[in-house]
């Protein structure tokens, strides 16, 4: 995999820091952007080490500048792939015996189609027992959801998914440390340029980012089974599962993630990371009050940044995408549940009654409102596709107010 050119890095920067709406609408990732940046960083670092050891030339400065740019992008990746402290996350490399840097480790999110470069959530329970993934039960073979989707409420049917990483996180951290060292060595030999690096401790403790850490918090909360009331001023309150809402001790009320985004302009990732930062929820309270009052004034600048391809405010980007892109097309809807921000889902599936037939077929249909979408994980020859739209509520006008309080309704037409 060759190092990206200047134009290529501009595309990466735009896709990673700008709209990033493709995972909201579920558009399969083609270029494996995070993986490309990681391997480009690794090879550029080795190239710079060779240049420093050998006869330095003008190319040394060029490679150093390129490596510095890649490092900033890689830092963004690390921030959102960092696991919670003091938690042991199983890895594919440990269970499968493959090399930690094996480029063949490739997990794709079954909901949005994104490349799960480092972290994902996996379920073997919802997968049929006769499938290969359930039989082998090895990490990377189950129903996979990327952290971005999982942190927005998307999941498998049972919602109890286990966090997995492709390789030990320390492998990525060590690559960063080696990159910083070679850039420092370059600084010692060249009067310019000077490189600025984020301190490692600060990089991995950002309260406003860290998608995988937030998703792990949610995964832990999903083991609870009680309910909460979402209280919206001047509007009807409604009961939601405890994992759909956060209680604010300062406000003396709970609010669901959908209303946090639409009414308070706070995304679930930021809310999950800030909520338990202090006992009284002070940080969480101050932040959602600030965002509610400042979102409108900051929106024009955010929109200009996205149009220009510059780096927009991360908090604004997340909540804007969640509020704007509420229609999705899940890649593998067989075992999925929609997220809090999914207003509707376009479903294209294979009609495979021959596989679903059997004594337990009717039982599976009664299990869940989504089980009528069941199909085998692979395509079936000579089976016509089923197309339709899945709504969280039969009445779209009430969906926002009721916060998915009604069962999903699926209307299908056979092509």
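-> sequence recovered:
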């Amino acid at each position: 995999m060759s190092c990206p050119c200047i134009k290529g890095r501009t595309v990466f920067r735009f896709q990673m820091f700008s709209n990033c709406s493709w995972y909201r609408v579920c558009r399969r990732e083609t270029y494996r952007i995070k993986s490309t940046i990681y391997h480009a960083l690794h090879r550029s670092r080795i190239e710079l080490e060779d240049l420093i050891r050998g006869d330095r030339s003008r190319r040394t400065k060029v490679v150093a500048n390129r490596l510095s740019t890649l490092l900033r992008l890689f830092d963004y990746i690390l921030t959102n792939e960092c696991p919670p402290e003091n938690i042991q996350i199983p890895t594919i490399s440990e269970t499968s015996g493959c090399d930690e840097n094996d480029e063949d480790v490739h997990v794709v999110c079954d909901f949005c189609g994104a490349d799960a470069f480092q972290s994902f959530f996996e379920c073997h329970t919802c997968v049929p027992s006769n499938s290969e993934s359930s039989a082998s039960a090895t990490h990377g073979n189950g129903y996979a959801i990327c952290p971005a989707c999982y942190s927005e409420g998307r999941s498998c049917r049972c919602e109890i998914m286990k966090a997995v990483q492709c390789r030990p996180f320390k492998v990525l951290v060590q690559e960063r440390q080696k990159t910083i060292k070679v850039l420092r060595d370059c600084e010692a030999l060249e009067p310019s340029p000077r490189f600025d690096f984020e301190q490692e401790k600060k990089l991995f403790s950002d309260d406003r980012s860290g998608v995988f850490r937030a998703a792990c918090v949610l995964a832990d909360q999903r083991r609870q089974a009680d309910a909460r009331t979402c209280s919206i001023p001047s509007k009807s309150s409604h009961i939601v599962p405890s994992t759909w809402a956060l209680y604010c001790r300062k406000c003396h009320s709970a609010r669901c993630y959908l209303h946090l985004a639409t009414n308070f302009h706070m995304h679930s990732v930021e809310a999950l990371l800030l909520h338990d930062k202090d006992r009284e929820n002070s940080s969480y309270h101050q932040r959602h009050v600030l965002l509610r009052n400042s979102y409108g004034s900051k929106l024009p600048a955010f929109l200009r940044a996205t149009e220009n391809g510059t780096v927009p405010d991360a908090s604004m980007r997340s909540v804007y995408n969640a509020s704007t892109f509420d229609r999705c097309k899940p890649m593998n809807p067989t075992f999925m549940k929609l997220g809090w921000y999914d207003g509707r889902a376009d479903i294209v599936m294979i009609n495979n009654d021959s596989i679903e037939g059997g004594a337990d077929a009717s039982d599976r249909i009664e299990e869940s409102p989504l089980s009528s979408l069941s199909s085998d994980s692979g395509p079936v020859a000579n089976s016509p596709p089923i197309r339709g739209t899945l709504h969280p509520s039969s009445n779209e006008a009430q969906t926002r107010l009721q916060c998915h309080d009604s069962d999903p309704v699926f209307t299908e037409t056979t092509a």
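Residues 92 and 139 are 6 Å apart (CA to CA).
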